[in-house]
Write a structure and sequence with these properties.
The chain contains 5 helices and no strands. The chain is an all-alpha fold.
């Protein structure tokens, strides 16, 4: 953008990146969103409990009842296996891309080439 200083440009770039990522995420139903240690359905349960009243014995019984009703939301071993399979798939795709491009060098050199060659940036 013309007429703005570096700090303003950075602020704008970060705003735009976050805005574009938010819009992109809307196209997926919430049940398809990723689960990480930072966010996911397990955090939703914690947020609900945090907002529930905690004044009377009944309040605490309600909290326990709600927690007991949650059950197992996420099978972590299944998620781990999915993650491992995805890493394997991505590694195979990367190897194929390196081979098809005719690049001569290591995987690390290829990644550096992708990050630094001006043909990949506008």
């Amino acid at each position: 953008m013309k007429g703005v200083n570096a700090a303003e440009q950075l602020s704008y770039d970060l705003f735009r990146r976050n805005y574009e990522r938010a819009i992109e995420g809307i196209r997926f139903p919430s049940e398809y969103l990723q689960v990480t240690q930072i966010g996911g359905v397990h955090q939703s349960v914690a947020n609900v409990v945090r907002t529930m009243p905690k004044f009377t014995l009944k309040d605490f019984k309600d909290i326990v009842a709600r927690l007991n009703a949650v059950g197992v939301l996420v099978d972590q071993s299944e998620i781990h296996e999915i993650g491992l399979a995805e890493v394997k798939r991505l590694n195979a795709e990367m190897k194929r891309a390196i081979t098809e491009s005719g690049f001569k060098g290591s995987r690390g050199e290829f990644l550096k080439f992708l990050r630094t060659d001006s043909r990949f940036y506008k």
